[in-house]
Write a structure and sequence with these properties.
Layout lengths: L4 H13 L3 E3 L5 E2 L5 E2 L1 E3 L8 H19 L4 E5 L4 H11 L3 E4 L12 E2 L7 E9 L3 H12 L3 E10 L3 H10 L3 E6 H10 L5 H12 L7
Parallel strand pairs: 5-6, 5-8, 8-9, 9-10
Antiparallel strand pairs: 1-4, 2-3, 6-7
Helix pairs in contact: 1-6, 2-3, 6-7
Length: 213
């Protein structure tokens, strides 16, 4: 669920401006999962644009406090959300930790890097939500460490049915700055894509795992 429509529109516009989101229905991308996709999103690019990363940081900080109350700790999901999560923690004056996909194979074998105490309230920052599987693994690791996870925030979500189901099943609240539907509306209005390409992008979202095969 987006925090609000105005934020979603502004976020979509900024991500399109810097090519953090690329739309190419005629020459689809191939994701690591093997899925063919007419959209590619790399929100790490925002870190290279101070004005945009500051906008994202400020919006996250404002909406986190309004939606969840001020937590004890901000947690970023490695690796994509370490940078933006740290910025959010900094502006909110909060401790920061990040969560690896799995424990290290050496040293202290940490999965959670940083100082986290049992019982602390945590809001998790993510850069992008696709199926939600890896994001929810991070939440589970935090819960196993004794954290009280208030919810997760992300820059952008594709809004797949499977991700909605996964978050509902896990009982984890998710809020995002931007989403797929708002992005498509803005992309048509700003002539990033045609109406025909808009229809193609909408069809892809229905069955992304088999689209283009």
């Amino acid at each position: 669920m987006i925090f609000n429509t105005d934020t979603a529109k502004k976020t979509a516009e900024l991500l399109l401006q810097i090519n953090a989101i690329k739309l190419n229905p005629k020459n689809p991308f191939t994701w690591a999962s093997g899925w063919k996709s007419p959209i590619y999103c790399d929100n790490r690019i925002t870190l290279s644009f101070p004005q945009i990363r500051n906008y994202i940081r400020e919006e996250f900080a404002k909406h986190i406090e309004n939606e969840y109350g001020k937590p004890d700790v901000i947690a970023g999901v490695a690796t994509g959300a370490i940078g933006i999560g740290m910025l959010v923690a900094d502006v909110m004056g909060l401790p920061f930790v990040y969560v690896r996909p799995e424990p290290k194979k050496h040293g202290r074998q940490n999965q959670i890097e940083g100082h986290l105490q049992e019982g602390q309230n945590v809001v998790v920052v993510e850069d992008l939500i696709s199926t939600g599987k890896s994001s929810l693994m991070a939440v589970e690791a935090l819960k196993e460490a004794g954290a009280n996870v208030k919810g997760m925030v992300a820059i952008f979500t594709y809004g797949f049915d499977v991700s909605v189901e996964n978050f509902n099943n896990a009982g984890v609240k998710l809020n995002t700055l931007g989403n797929y539907d708002t992005l498509l509306e803005l992309a048509v209005s700003k002539q990033y894509i045609t109406e025909e390409e808009h229809d193609t992008l909408k069809e892809w979202r229905k069955t992304p795992d088999t689209w283009g095969q």
